[in-house]
Write a structure and sequence with these properties.
two-stranded antiparallel sheet; four-stranded parallel sheet; transmembrane; alpha/beta; transmembrane helix; membrane; Sulfotransferase domain-containing protein
């Protein structure tokens, strides 16, 4: 077993990625005074930038990328050994890609897990005995418009929401009927991923093991989380689930044994690369990555209709979204949407 490397004392800035300013475009052949002033300005901007918050990628009305400042208060006084890195995040949020990258970079010295107190996609309970102390938790998010459209197209573990129109998908109650082996249980059993029976559908991993179904997106393995309050009641829709999942993740920073919680955005990592994130992990753990950082990637933007954008904008909890750096996207003037049905 590799001995964990002791982390150095933390600096006072945010532990999240910081985008460095570009080098001065002035030519070194220019006037010496101009060059010296430019160099001085560069270092001033560099030092100031090093103290500000993580920059998140957003989309404006024309689909262009816009950086929004977002700040998280780190536990700057943490000086212990980082014993585990846990990568968590919802389905279709890039966690498979990011976990594989971090594992490739740091697993030689620090375990990189795709779970915390539960598997990465699900609600994380305050079960401090299910993870080592001190654990660094990295939560990955995706902007709500792209995430909801991706969930509509690829509804992992959500058979009741497969093969329906986008508005039905967004409005439909987040639940399904119990079937097969679930109906044979008494209701007091501990279910998959240590959920209580009333808090998950289905309790059994594959409730109808002998029935052939379309399992392209694990539709034969339903996983509908009920409200995270113990009531056993379903969420009104997937947007309500998302808001509560964000709240749950935000609470993790105060769980016993958590070294810190870092929040990153999938689209920002794609557009800027992962070098800054790897550098921050090295700073916090003292472990050098055995990998190459991913360079910036430019992927084709998802085609989302104006009606879809309007509906999500009208019905999503933007107060909660602001906690992770997201805000509504406006795509046209108010007087141009006379044909839009806001129901």
């Amino acid at each position: 077993m590799t001995t964990p490397t002791k982390a150095p004392r933390r600096r006072s800035e945010s532990p999240l990625m910081i985008r460095r300013p570009p080098k001065s475009p002035l030519s070194l052949r220019g006037h010496r005074l101009v060059w010296m002033l430019s160099l001085s300005m560069f270092f001033c901007v560099f030092l100031a930038w090093d103290q500000i918050s993580y920059q998140f990628l957003m989309m404006n009305a024309e689909g262009e990328t816009v950086n929004k400042a977002f700040q998280v208060n780190p536990k700057v006084n943490h000086t212990g050994v980082i014993r585990q890195i846990s990568l968590i995040g919802e389905r279709n949020s890039g966690t498979k890609w990011m976990w594989a990258h971090l594992a490739d970079c740091f697993n030689h010295s620090i375990p990189v897990e795709k779970k915390f107190s539960r598997y990465k996609h699900w609600f994380q309970p305050r079960d401090y005995w299910r993870y080592p102390h001190d654990t660094l938790v990295i939560a990955e998010f995706r902007n709500p418009y792209d995430w909801l459209m991706a969930m509509h197209e690829v509804p992992h573990h959500a058979p009741a929401h497969a093969n329906v129109g986008w508005k039905t998908f967004l409005k439909k109650k987040w639940t399904t009927n119990r079937t097969g082996l679930d109906l044979e249980l008494k209701g007091d059993e501990l279910c998959q991923h240590h959920f209580k029976y009333k808090d998950i559908i289905s309790c059994v991993h594959k409730p109808e093991p002998h029935v052939p179904v379309d399992n392209r997106h694990s539709l034969d393995k339903p996983f509908y989380e009920m409200r995270n309050d113990g009531s056993g009641k379903p969420y009104k829709n997937i947007m309500e689930l998302r808001s509560d999942k964000i709240r749950n993740i935000m609470e993790i920073k105060d769980f016993p044994g958590v070294a810190d919680l870092w929040m990153v955005q999938y689209e920002f990592l794609l557009s800027t690369g992962t070098q800054d994130l790897l550098d921050r992990i090295t700073e916090w753990t003292g472990v050098e990555p055995r990998c190459k950082a991913y360079p910036p990637q430019f992927r084709r933007q998802r085609n989302i209709s104006k009606d879809f954008v309007y509906y999500v904008t009208d019905h999503l909890n933007w107060t909660v979204e602001a906690e992770i750096g997201y805000e509504p996207m406006a795509i046209m003037e108010e007087n141009d949407d006379d044909d839009y049905d806001r129901s």
